[in-house]
Amino acid sequence: MESGRRNEPPMKGAPLRPFRDVFKTLGPGLITGAADDDPSGIGTYSQTGAQLGYGASWTMLLTFPLMAAIQEISARVGRVTGHGIAGNVCRHYPASLLNGIVSLLFIANTINVAADLGAMADASRLLFGGPAFAYVLLFGITSVVAQIFLDYARYVAVLKWLTLSLFAYVAALAVAHVSWGEAVAGLLIPRVEFSAPFLTTIVAILGTTISPYLFFWQASQEAEDQRVDARKRPLIQRHHGAQKEFHRIRADTIVGMAFSSLIAIAIILTAAATFHATGKTDIQTSAQAAEALRPIAGRFAEVIFALGIVGTGLLAIPVLAGSAAYAVGEGRRWPVGLARKPKEAAAFYAVLALSAAIGIVLNFTPIDPIQALYWSAVINGVLAVPVMVLLMLVARHHEIMGNFRVGGPLYWLGWLATAIMAFGVVAMAIAWAL
């Protein structure tokens, strides 16, 4: 006799279950990839599309495998050792080297926090009106309070759901009048110009997509997950299930970086179809891009573009301030981690709050946010090279990684990413000199 359940209608919401199950398995890689498209990054991609048109989108296909490789290596280091990048470097390399890198990271991240808060405030003012300073305070304080006082699992879930805000740029692309023939050609056929503006833009894209704070964040989050989950231990201590963990890390990282690259392509194409096509090439910030969309693509495009800036800013600021706190705390061997109570990791949370607080204050000074962001990108671009070299050395260090040293195509792809970043810094220096 057949059970009557066979004829029952499917449960409400059942089609969403596969999506929810997959979404739950994603973690540090997805959040890291989405945080890469922060408001300052949106400004860079908008400027790229406005200045170079469709012919610049191929750069995202170039950077995707490079950023995926370096982020996977970062995640592996965290999962194998139970420490982030700074935690490993402080145990095996000179303290002076680590102190210089961490100091530059803190400065660059703090300037980036300030720029992102300013962009979020400008976008909110477009949407709702009111004074910009109120939004700077609101977003800055909310971010710090959430990181310090929210339960870790709940906070990570909030960050994961915030990644969906980036789909606003897919919606913006849908209402733009894109010349798809030119868009596909620009994506698949590299166009290179040996000029200072072009080389500077390429370096800006490299610095925006392959940023040191992302390396520190993903490695530290993999280590953090082991402290939260009692079933997990660093793989160097407990070898069982290593391959399953490496497969999870690869899938998580590829999905996160692919998501980041697709959103960046959508922003570049939207800017190319609206600004470049109409001769408007002076876009400098993400908020300017949102405002300039209204007369070209309508109020709807402006609103969803601005909402995306706020959403991704709420995601990126915790990653920026948090990665600085992880780097400083691990380098000093303090108790670190968002899963710890404030009294258990007071110095870690103090660094996090300090980075955000300085970022808030910078918005009330005469400092030009565009110039500050420019120099932040310069610091990130220069800093990325030694950090990536150190990361590649750590990944092959037998005492650190044991039998889980990174090798094969992933290892060489990591060195290729490092070489391209170094070439970008040299090209930028030559462009300045000329």
UniProtKB/TrEMBL annotation:
Location(s), subcellular: Membrane
Keywords: Membrane, Symport, Transmembrane, Transmembrane helix, Transport
Xref: Pfam families: Nramp (PF01566)
Bilayer-crossing regions: 97-120, 132-150, 157-178, 198-217, 254-275, 303-326, 346-367, 373-394, 410-433
Highest taxon of the lineage: Bacteria
Main location per the UniProt record: membrane
GO cellular component: plasma membrane
GO terms under biological process: iron ion transmembrane transport
InterPro entries per the UniProt record, alphabetical: NRAMP_fam (IPR001046)
Record carries keyword DNA damage: no
MF annotations from Gene Ontology: cadmium ion transmembrane transporter activity; manganese ion transmembrane transporter activity; symporter activity
Membrane topology, record value: Multi-pass membrane protein
PANTHER family, A to Z: NATURAL RESISTANCE-ASSOCIATED MACROPHAGE PROTEIN 2, SOLUTE CARRIER PROTEIN FAMILY 11 MEMBER
Protein's name according to its UniProt entry: Iron transporter
